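Chapter summary example.
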Amino acid sequence: MVRAAVLPAVSAPLEITGIELPEPGPGQVRVALAAAGVCHSDLSLSNGTMRVPVPAVLGHEGAGTVVAVGEGVGHVAPGDGVVLNWAPSCGSCHACALGEVWLCANALNGAGAVHARRADDGSDLHPGLNVAAFAEETVVPAGCVLPVPDGIPLTDAALLGCAVLTGYGAVHHSAKLREGETVAVFGAGGVGLAALQAARIAGASRIVAVDISPQKEELARRAGATDYVVASENTAREIRALTGKQGVDAAIECVGRAATIRTAWESTRRGGRTTVVGIGGKDQQVTFNALELFHWGRTLSGCVYGNSDPARDLPVLAAHVREGRLDLSALVTERITLDGIPAAFDNMIAGKGGRALVVF
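The structure predicted for these 360 residues follows.
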């Protein structure tokens, strides 16, 4: 038996309870978690913004040590450190054939499987976003684990599994930020802080961080922000004032709210680029009129998992970490146990802090 954070039903409180995991079958890997990040996507799963079969063990950003492997697994072995990949590509769907593995049509097929059983009543549990990282141990398909790059501590490596791949990818793969350009990052949570660091790595000349909380300014500047704007109805005007009344070249929206998406778009220059990373609900409707779309010539694009290929990008991120350009610790504002996850959800709702990291 291992302890895990279970979502018994949509919008129900998380329950920290014992679960029974099966031994890894063919093509499966059992992992003892070292750490797991508490991501806003987990909150979105719990409140129904994103659909998930329930009851489920949540958590998708994690790293740990391989305990056992099933038949046919050859790329990792017991004792290896691994990063969990919550969106493994199938390699055969239309998106994968195009090389767009982050849009794999089959990436989340495993979320509907029976992952484990509650120890108290034997009821079936599903793996939220495939990997069920909010647990002391998990069993996942072999495609859901990637070796931890050399020189990266396991607890830090957990952040690579979602926040950093997403934030870095949004800047480098989606927005394609170029050296000398200006950028605004909306939302200074875990993903936003990663995006700020990615913008610094890209050589942006001005990096504007935007958040509702004045208390996050120090965090944002540590991550690379040159300017900090507390969100208000005048945010777009303030950002244009910082950039010679032109607006930034690119905006990265990490919130997922209609008003924030609209403000991010208005904050860019004529011909600017807005990348939407935040996951919003169906009720968040963003409107534009046809004339302004023509006149401003701006680009608005969605971004899934940072448009990243984890197998390709993890070594790149690890090199940035080893060479001091990427500081993973700058994303973490609290280290907690499994029991602290509900409070971490509350902090996210209140807009407090960066990434909470569950350390096992």
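To summarize the output: The longest strand covers residues 28-38.
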